Structures are given as structure tokens and as C-alpha cells.
Amino acid sequence: MTSTAAVSAARHAPAAARLPSLTGLRWIAALLVFGFHAATMRIIAEPDYKAVIDGLFALGLSGVQFFFVLSGFVLVWSARPGDSRRTFWRRRIAKIYPNHLVLWAAALLVAWWFADPVPPAAALENLLLLQAWDPRPGWFYSINTVSWSLSCEFFFYLCLPLALPLLRRTRPALLWTLVIALPLLILALWPAQQLVPEVSRWWFTQIFPPARSLEFWLGAVAAELMRRGRWRGPGLTGASVIFVATWVAAVQWIRAELWTTLLAVAYLLVITAAADADVRGRPSPWRSRPLVWLGEVSFAFYLVHVLVMTTVLRWTGDWGTGFGGWRGPAVVLGFLLVNLVLAGLLHRFVETPMMRRLAPRRPARPAVVPRQRAGGTEARNTEVDNAEAGGTEAGNAGARTAGRAGERSTYADSR
Q: pLDDT tier at 147 (50, 70, 90 boundaries)?
């Protein structure tokens, strides 16, 4: 499994460059999830308009797949040899928990306002991010619905520091074997669900943290290969074409058990190609200043959007009825803007200051570090401040262009 050459390559691999394109891509994934929920809530009643949003966002739920793959990639890419397990876990809790706590309290307040019954055990599970382990229908979606993915991410964070030393010593050939095997295991989840009670099959394939960790480890293995200069994949244009073709084919013809596997691979190709473009300084449409800011607030946006939409629709009496004519698309656009404003406030006044207060400081890097080569790929030894998440995690705070001096950083690291 390991070799002297592999260990040497890992030790001498260049430090990670900033990856602002991955932050910009986070917003696209968050937008896919938003569009999926807007479609399933039936906000648009006009059939022609509804057909458009249904077609565009039919597979939008797979945006969570992107967050999980990205989380594994960025956390391995940015891991520093001097970080202890305790430091890593403290930093990740500081990243996700303050926002989660605010939305948990807000969701309970909304439940109280509408006199919705809330089992205390469900509230406690959600508070501790344990709800994804509970297969009872409705419990894993309790309180703030979307926080189930944070429960999965919490499990990934627990496992990564334990597995990372082994990953660093693994031979490249075995890493490539894992890149091939992990999507096949994702595919195998569908026949494997026959082993669990029918009522728990959705939970098993879509929620159960060990099952969803396959996407996280896919990103982690690819990051280790790229870190050593051993990754081989299409460029950003080719990866984007593959993704669009996969998306269109999946919407039209491919069954769910297959498109979940194909989209995991397509997302991985886009993530690695965008990261490679940033490392090499090649053009990328995803590192523009507006997209990077949207990516920074995408974690907060993801956490607030369902709660805001369901609360407003219930309060106005429009839940499940839809809006006719042009009003439907206008309401969706209004929700997008309102959620974006709230996400910006949450990022600015909760996420950023709590990260500064709670997360351990990273040791300063030397101002100038010479370039090195690893596996024929040249990368700059600059600090990664790229957060995941899902995570799920908004990252590269303040990173406007790769290598720009004096950049502000919300989080040094996904999610």
C-alpha cells in the first residue's frame, strides 16, 4: 500500500496555491440546490414557466454532491503537516457551528410561531448534528431541513484526520484504483438498499453519513493525487463540456441510480480542472470578484434558504398553491435576493467574526518561498484559505485573484 517513493513525494509536494475558482463554483452548486427546492415547493403555477424551472433544476439536489466532493478535495489539498487533530476539529467546528446554531434557534422560533410540535429528542439531535444517523422518517430533516448535510460533514471531519496519514502514504496506483472504485460503490448503494427496510431506503442512499462519505473520499483521493502532481484529467473547458453533457443526458434519459454516480464523476472533473487552472494561473471564469463573494456566502445561503421560503409561504397562506402568471418567477427571484441578503448578513456578522474568535490561528508562512516541481507539475507555495461546504463551507474569503498580495482571509484551510 505504501512505498518510500510515495512517502517522499508526499513530503516534498508543493504547498497548496489559493483556489478561488472553487469558491466561485460553490455558488453554482448552491444555486442548483435553491432552484431544486423552489421547483419542488411549487411556487410557480404557470405550466410553461414551471416546466422551465423543473427542467433547469431537475437534478439540483445533486449540488450537495458537489459540496461533499469539494469538501474532501479542499481539506486534503490544504492540510498542513503541523496541524494536530484537535486543531483541525476545532477549526471545522468554528466554521460550521455558529451559523448552524443561529439557524437552529431561528427554526425553533418559527416552529413555536406556527405551533408546530417539536419532539425534544429531535431538537437535541439536530443541535448536536446527529440527525443524519436517525433513519426515522422526518427526523433527519428535523428543525432546519438542510442541516442534515452538516451532520454528514461533521462525520467526515471526524474521520479525515484519522485517515489522512494513511492517505499520504498510499501508492499512486492504489489512489487511482480508489478513484475508479468509489463511484462504483456509489452505484452499488442502490441495489444494497434492498437490505434495509423499505421505509429507510431513501435515508440509506441519500442521508446515511457513511454512504455519503464516498463522495467526500472521492474528492480527498483526487486532491492527494493532484498534490503529488499525479492527477490526470481534462482541462477546465473539457471538464465543463463533459459536465453539461452528463447533466443533459441525466435529465432526459438516465435513471437516478446511475446519474448519481455519473454526476459525482463529472463534479470531480470540474473541481480538479478548476483547481489546476488556479494553480497554473490559467484563465477561469469562476474566479471573478462577484462569483468569489457569492461563493463566500454560499454556506450561509444554503442554511437559510429553505427556512426563509417555507416560513414566508406559510405566513402569507401561499404554501402549496403557487403563483400564477409572471408572479411565480418574480417570487422565486425575490426569494433568491432576500436569501442572498440574509446570507451576506449571516456571513458578515456571525460566520466571519466567530471564525476569528474561535478558530486557532495558523502559523505565519515565510513571505517568499521558491517554486518547486512535483511530478512535473509546477505549483506556487502560497497559502490556501479555501473553505468547503456543504457544506457544505464558504472559503477563500477575500481572495480576489490568485496570488494577490495582502489578501484578507476569513478561513485558512472545505465543505
A: very high
* Per-residue pLDDT at 373: 37
Residue 144 zone, left/alpha/beta (φ > 0; ψ -120 to 50; rest) = beta
pLDDT in tens, 223-234: 999 999 999 999
Biggest CA–CA distance in the chain, Å, is: 66
Residues forming a β-bridge with 390: 392
| Residue from 363, 362, 298, 308 nearest 331 by CA | 308
Mean pLDDT of 83-96: 93
Look at residues 383, 391, 381 and name the one whose alpha carbon lies nearest to residue 362.
383
Choose between 151 and 4: higher pLDDT.
Answer: 151
Beta carbons within 8 Å of 135's beta carbon, 6+ residues apart = 196, 200, 203, 204, 207, 208
Classify residue 170 by its DSSP letter.
B
Cell readout for 101 is 446554531
162 CB neighbour count, 10 Å cutoff: 9
Q: Is 287 helix (H, G, I), strand (E, B) or coil?
A: helix
Please list the residues that pair with 378 across neighbouring strands.
Answer: 373
The pLDDT mean for the chain works out to: 85
Cα torsion through 352, 358, 360, 366, rounded to 10: 30
Amino acid residing at 210: P
Per-residue cell: 305: 434558504
Is-contact 109 117, C-beta < 8 A?
no
DSSP state of 196: S
State pLDDT tens for residues 99-114.
999 999 999 999 999 9
